[in-house]
Amino acid sequence: LPKSLGDPREVARVSRSRARLFRAASAGHVLPDKPTPPHDGGEGHSMVSTVSGLLQPVGPVKCHCSTCTLDSVCYGGMSGLKRMRSDLGSRDRAHLAPVAVVEAWGERPPDRGGRPPSSPDPPSSPNTPSAPDSPSSPDFPTEAAFWSSHVAPLLTQLEEERAEVVGRLCGVCEDLGAVLARGGMLAQRGGHGRAALLRVLYRLVDVNSDRLLLHVIKLILSIQVKDKNLLNVCKLVFKISRTENNDLLFLQVGIVELLLGVLGDPDLAANVEALTYCAGAVKFLANSGGSDGGDGGGALGAELLARGALDTLLGLLARANTALADKAMAHLLVQVTAAVRGLADAPGACGFFRAARALPTLCTTLERYECDACVCTNVLRTFSKVTDRSEGCRELAAVDSSPNILIALLHKFPRKQDLVVRVCYTLGNLAARSEAVRERLWRHASCLDVLLHVYALQLQRQPDTGAVASHSFTCSRGLQRADLAEDVLVKLLRVLANLSLHPGLGAALASHPRCIQLLICTLESPGVREREEIVLNAVATVNNLSYHMGPGATLQGQQLRIAELLLMPLLGPGEEGVLEALRALGNLSQSAAVRELLHQHHVPGLLLELLSEGSQDVCYSAGGVLLNMSSTDDGGAGRLLQLGAMERLLSCLQRYCRGDWQLGGLLCKVLWNFSQGPAATGTSGKGGGLDPSDTTRLLATLHLLLDERTALVSAPLGGGEPGETVQGYHRQLWEAEFVPVARRLQKRVQSQAAPLLLEPL
């Protein structure tokens, strides 16, 4: 007889898969792999009872969605191996190519001495005649003779081997598969001894070893079983795949290609239940290394991509998109879309998704199954991952119907938070990077109404103890799932802020009473004030809308109320909140009423403190507000000079200007306002005038910053082209943003300071 492999503890297994770190978390609720105790009756009855117990349904397919289970599929009338054995003579599956089946056995495991897979077969024992290389050889024995001399001895060994020696059984299974492949007997219709082979393999299901079960499944799939046999085998594969520690076994045994071959079955309607379990197994493998929520990204996902899993799954999706949309097909698509979702997070997935044109197919699925929340959620989770990258955004934006599909889903499921949050995240990514998407949403008739309706619903879910009685919209209703509602609001406000980049959408939102009322309610709500990310996005939305604040806009009528609400993040401890509030006030402070409000709340003193202690970005935004507040129309420049603004501005100019010429130009504009009118000469009671020492210091600073030899000396230097490019950009900013306004300021200050600098006789 041919040599069988030793125990795995004695044999160094060779695998083409990459090493991975196993996580403690399981991929699902794993059923214990306990063998059923044998029956007291005869051997045959014991085998049927035991194996039937092992192959009972394993429970609903875990689709990571609380509203969708596969109970009807899992418990669809399976009665164990009696039914499997009654179908031993069923027709072969034509969809699994014989070449792929033979290739699954092309790499033999090493023998006891560590022989590599490419080494020749071990010598046969004297009692076993060797077979010619090819069935087409003239000397090749007949099928019956080949079976008797090569296959039957291995079957006998499988029957007689002790169940405890799992390694030997796995080795014999590998030898058996290689012999069947060499004899061309894997893909034969009604081949010799097929029933006997299946009976022996089904007995091995009793053994408590997932590794051996995968070897047995590999053989059964290789001989291309069909109908109920295929269904029961796929259920067994699904059960094994639910244990994350088994992930690497799928690659080591070499069963992945056979599973993908099953998913390539063109007869979708006949095998939809088997395909559902098979796709569920691939889903667990694709999500290997992720949380129970279903995020993958491990090395196994990259291996699946390299073996063509994405193309196979997309082909199955394409066939399902044209098939009858019934309940069974929806169950299948939940598993397939979950598998695609896991592959989207694998290393290098972007190139595979682009080459396979995955996003148009997924959009078709989303449109066709828009009423199935589980399918839609899986597809949207894929979109969320893909659109994190700019190339993914471009590809999804290239699908003309994608924005309309996303808005339709928001309209259909406005209260389903786990779906809404992913729609908003994808829309936010698209609106941030694609002008074409913003234009399409501008032309969408109900886009803004749908978004604001969802906004209102999600704002109601924020916990709030203080109702704002004057609001037409009640802010005080606290509902369950507040954390998810917070996430939805964060993503939704980001969508509105990014849509405001479009002139038409920005003007429409700034003039929309409901939009402005919801933003005010968000900033006023005590339950929201504690949630920093919501406040930041709400203030950023106000800032973007303030650029479209035309006459008669609702935002203009509410600017005093909004400006007062912005004081809370401005006075808060977080720098991000301070920065966003300053940006919004930079536009709102163009109004004299808003400027007076800021003076009443002593905001100018805070702005001057920020010039001394804030970061470069904070200084720039604070300078923008100071520019508006130094207007000579209402004596703002004089008020600021009384607070010591000149000293703070000069210090900031000397500290930051050489590294940021835009900030330097802005500060020069503020100083220009100080240099004109009564404040410059101190003739008005509202202003203290320019002190001669400040004037001298200002002129000296401007002289240094306008001299190319001293101004650009600290420009980023370096050898080679990159340093020269940065230095050239630095010079362009100096010439365009700083020099024109600084020269004008220098001339004005020099003309005003000349009489003051004359010494008395």
3D structure, described in words:
- The protein has 761 residues and is mainly α.
- Among the domains are: 1-12 and 92-268, no CATH class; 633-761, no CATH class.
- 63% of the residues lie in helices and 0% in strands.
- The chain is elongated.
- Residues 117-126 have a biased composition (Pro residues).
- Residues 25-46, 102-142 are annotated as: Disordered.
- It comes from Petromyzon marinus.
Describe the structure using short key phrases.
761 residues; mainly alpha; 63% helix; elongated; disordered N terminus
Q: Which segments are poorly predicted (pLDDT under 50) over 5 or more consecutive residues?
A: 1-100, 107-134, 465-480, 681-688, 715-722
From the alpha-carbon coordinates, what is the Rg to the nearest angstrom? 37 Å
Could you report the average pLDDT, rounded to the nearest whole number?
78
> What does the main sheet amount to?
none
Structural class designation: mainly alpha
Number of strands: 0
Form type = elongated
User: Roughly how much helix do the residues carry, as a percent range?
Assistant: 55-70%
What is the distance, rounded to the nearest whole angstrom, between the alpha carbons of the first and last residues?
Answer: 125 Å
> How many alpha or pi helices?
41
Strand content: under 5%
Topology:
Elements: H1 43-54, H2 71-74, H3 81-86, H4 98-103, H5 143-160, H6 166-182, H7 194-203, H8 210-222, H9 227-241, H10 247-253, H11 256-263, H12 272-286, H13 299-306, H14 309-322, H15 327-343, H16 349-355, H17 358-368, H18 373-386, H19 390-397, H20 402-412, H21 417-433, H22 435-443, H23 447-460, H24 482-499, H25 503-510, H26 513-524, H27 526-529, H28 532-546, H29 554-557, H30 559-570, H31 575-588, H32 592-600, H33 603-613, H34 616-629, H35 636-642, H36 645-656, H37 661-674, H38 678-681, H39 692-706, H40 708-711, H41 720-757
Helix pairs in contact: 5-6, 6-8, 8-9, 9-12, 11-12, 12-15, 14-15, 14-17, 15-18, 17-18, 18-21, 20-21, 21-24, 23-24, 23-26, 24-28, 28-31, 30-31, 30-32, 31-34, 33-34, 33-36, 34-37, 36-37, 36-39, 37-41, 39-41
